[in-house]
Amino acid sequence: MAEKLEDLNLPLTVVTRIVKEALPEGATISKEARTGLAKAASVFVLYVTSAATNIVKNKKRKALTGQDVLDAMKDIEFDRFIEPLGESFEQYKLAVSARKSGAGKKKDEEEVETIEDE
Amino acid sequence: MTMPKAERDLHLPLSRVKTIMKSSPDVEAVGPEPLYLVTKVTELFVTDLAKRAHQKTKGNLLEYKHIAEIVQDDDTLDFLREIMPKKITVRQFKEIMARKAAKNNRSDDESSEEESSEEDSTEESSSDNNAD
Q1: DSSP A53-85
Q2: What is the rounded CA–CA span in Å between residue A46 and residue A71?
Q3: Is the ipTM of this complex over 0.95?
Q4: Closest approach of chain A CAs to the CA of B41, in angstroms?
Q5: Nearest-by-Cβ selection for B9 from A23, A36, A88
Q6: CA distances in angstroms from A66 to A28, A48, A83, A93, B32, listed in the order given
Q7: pTM for the complete prediction?
Q8: Which run of H or of E encompasses B84?
């Protein structure tokens, strides 16, 4: 587990972008505030992960699922995120299956070609 | 490497979030779905916290202290309290020390040892949060 310390931090530029989008135009943020939010975000990732992992362990499973993350929101009292998160999740799943069905067709064609070559 | 369409609404880099998740004990496989959700909810969290902190500002400048105040007042943000302490100015620190010294002088024991007041010394100039 040889992560460099900076690998456990989220990039400040990206966090700044998220913050700027959250605030009204013309709002300014001190560097200390941005750094603080970036660190808070990293800690939050760990916090959610830990809560979701607890759920998985209690259910005697190993791999985290999307539902585990959603359920973890209740445990850590971030119920207010469940709805928007659920909606994004639906969009995400649609996009993934759209991508798969597009890629799927291609794959089938390639397999057919390979067989014919042999 | 182009970002796949499905994750295009995200800002945070998935690989970095995955690294952080995997540093957590007991985490085994992290598939794309939980990775997406953790990344997404972290963005929601940052947005939410930034907006709330901004409401605390009088002008338009969001400062660390606004965030620290929210963290200290909201119990659901307990997990952040250690990394985001409220900070005091050097002047406030000196006032606290002066008050403590006065208290010690009033008591019969005149030899007031200098306390190592690490808990009070969260001066703005020596904050851990600046150690980047």
Answers
A1: HHHHHHTT--S--HHHHHHHHHHTT-GGGHHHH
A2: 15
A3: no
A4: 7
A5: A88
A6: 35, 12, 14, 10, 9
A7: 0.76
A8: none
